[in-house]
Amino acid sequence: MTNKTCGADQVTGMGRLAGKVAIVTGAGQGIGEAIARAFAAAGAKVILTGRTLEKIEAVAAAIQSDGATALAIKADAGNANEAAMVIQRAVDEWGRIDVLVNNAHSFTDFLPLEDPKMEANCKVDLQSAFFGSLQMMQAAFPHMVAQGGGSIINFGSDFGIRCEPGFLAYAASKEAIRALTRTAAREWGKHNIRANTILPRAMSPKALWYLEETGTHDAELARVALGRFGVPDDIAPTAVFLASDDSAFVTGQTIGVEGGVTMF
Q1: For the chain, N or C: smaller number of CB within 10 Å?
Q2: Euclidean distance between CA atoms 72 and 20, whole angstroms
Q3: Does some domain include residue 264?
Q4: Which spans are transmembrane here (predicted)?
């Protein structure tokens, strides 16, 4: 679990999301967990989804122990029926959906472009990341329209822009998400529905292992203008901003929260 600093009011702004209902996919660990905890600390009621019920229940319990409101629902990203179920559960429980965070994404390992398994890898990543985000957005759309608006936060990656060798499946899915986000911003802005993409850089244990294994740790660190790898709590405050009314005039944007690796 992330540390509790992301729940502190000096980080999130206590009450900044008071009265809002938020859904965070992939909330059992890492960035998703940090965002769910920060949202709850800022006053939101939060639904956490993930593939492993025990993980999201543990995060929900920690949120509840801090006096906030959270509900854990087992759901796989990329399953349309489960996306519809999660959205309906939010409406049944709390009557609205103000914020949707599409963080969940299956990750396929390094694979050269010429490998025959590449097509299968692309389908895995696109199903969980792109179609998973699309399905959640489509299911939430009528409820956000009916209530007068909402905020959608999707997740891209600087790998999608850099196109590092061996990561076509991941890069393609992340760039598809950026296109999805901008299209939603264009089409749904008239309904006061905002959509933005965060490019995060928060090192997971697997990512750090990979950098050490491939000998690219120092090279990747050298790309970071601020001189350090991020942690999940570095990402959460930007998500809180995009979920809050402070970002009421921000939509269709890609925001890098990665220490200055990618500068637009």
Answers
A1: C
A2: 17
A3: no
A4: none
Q: Supply the CATH number for residue 86's domain.
A: 3.40.50.720
Q: Flag whether the pTM goes above 0.85.
A: yes
In a domain, 163, yes or no: yes
**pLDDT of amino acid 12:** 43
Asked if residue 263 is part of any domain, the answer here is no
- In the chain, the number of structural domains is 1
Residue 262 within any structural domain of the chain = no
Residue 210 designated active-site: no
pLDDT tens track for 45-68: 999 999 999 999 999 999 999 999
